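Module 6 notes. Inverse folding takes a fixed backbone as the condition and produces residue identities as the prediction. Think of it as a translation problem where the source language is geometry and the target language is the twenty amino acids. Below is one complete input and output pair. Work through it position by position during the lab.
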């Protein structure tokens, strides 16, 4: 091994003892906002009489908790939202795109098969750092953070943009109210940077998956097995199908499991956490998980009333809103927990680092 190679190896080992802290956050919700009343006029399968005489707004607010969700306009897509969210995160961090060593983007709704949305994100930010795209859904941001952390260790990257962006509305049957009520479009981003800040930043991670139940969240067409054809579109096979009967209890179980496991790995008691930011899958699911863990409601950050379930983007959007609204104080013990298609689930435990304090 040459002297240069030894120095590089030692440098990477030294970096592993550095803290990976979030120093900037950003998010983006498209301008087009759709209320529950708008949806009731749009969909064809909501029956007030069958629902007990209540409006769709009353039905959704009682169960899911979404008042309004956002949609991309025709011609707008995943990369557009990711660009805006990332620019805001860079601005919040006091950096420019040229300061980035790595971009990790999670999405299941890429603009094109090729080029990747991560490539377009890099292009429009105007930098030349390494980019990496994960095809993940609701648990995507958690896994993107884990991948980013691993790549920072392996390659000595210091500053990383981690983003999740989803234009999931393209997967929703416009005639059916259930998925239209739940899902929204949006993007969130954070700047993850190595700093000499002992006790701060990412402290523990947990991720898991089970492909034997993958069809609980399913988009039959659009891949290599069932390409898009007029016949496929006529049958609606390019729209997402969710088995809510199975997903609801599974989501509650895995949010609880992920939270407990990541805290176990961190050596932290559940009672010690200051902020719990779960995947914004539905208020009923979140509150049942919170009830089972006995987390005080004042520690739980919920914003899906004005975002809907934006898949992998829910957590970074929530982090940005919590950061900008003063929820996240320096030294706060934070758990981010997610569950999604795959089926996949996981969590992150971090100690919040306020760069303005340091």
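Target side of the pair, the amino acids:
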């Amino acid at each position: 091994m040459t002297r240069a190679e030894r120095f590089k190896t030692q440098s990477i080992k030294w970096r592993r003892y550095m803290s990976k802290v979030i120093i900037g956050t950003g998010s983006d919700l498209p301008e087009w906002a759709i209320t529950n009343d708008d949806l009731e006029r749009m969909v064809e399968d909501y029956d007030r009489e069958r629902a007990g005489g209540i409006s769709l707004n009353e039905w959704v607010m009682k169960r899911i908790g979404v008042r309004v969700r956002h949609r991309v306009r025709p011609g707008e897509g995943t990369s557009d939202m990711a660009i805006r969210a990332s620019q805001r995160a860079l601005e919040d961090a006091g950096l420019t795109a040229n300061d980035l060593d790595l971009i990790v983007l999670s999405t299941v709704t890429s603009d094109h098969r090729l080029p990747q949305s991560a490539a377009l994100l890099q292009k429009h930010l105007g930098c030349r750092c390494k980019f990496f795209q994960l095809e993940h859904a609701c648990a995507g941001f958690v896994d993107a953070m884990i991948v980013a952390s691993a790549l920072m260790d392996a390659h000595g990257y210091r500053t990383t943009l981690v983003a999740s962006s989803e234009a999931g509305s393209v997967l929703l049957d416009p005639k059916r109210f259930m998925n239209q009520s739940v899902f929204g479009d949006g993007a969130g981003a954070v700047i993850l940077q190595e700093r000499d800040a002992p006790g701060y930043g990412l402290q523990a991670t947990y991720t898991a998956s089970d492909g034997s139940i993958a069809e609980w969240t399913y988009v039959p067409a659009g891949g290599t097995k069932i390409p898009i054809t007029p016949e496929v579109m006529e049958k609606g096979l390019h729209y997402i199908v969710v088995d809510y009967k199975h997903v609801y209890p599974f989501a509650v179980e895995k949010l609880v499991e992920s939270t407990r496991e990541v805290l176990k790995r961190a050596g932290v008691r559940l009672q010690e956490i200051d902020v719990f930011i779960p995947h914004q899958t539905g208020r009923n699911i979140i509150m049942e998980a919170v009830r089972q863990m006995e987390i005080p409601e004042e520690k739980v950050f919920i914003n899906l009333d004005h975002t809907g379930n934006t898949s992998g983007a829910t957590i970074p959007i929530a982090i940005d809103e919590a950061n900008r609204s003063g929820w996240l104080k320096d030294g706060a013990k934070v758990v981010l927990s997610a569950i999604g298609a795959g089926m996949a689930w996981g969590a992150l435990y971090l100690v919040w680092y306020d760069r303005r304090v340091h």
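Reference fact for the lab report: The chain has a mean pLDDT of 92.
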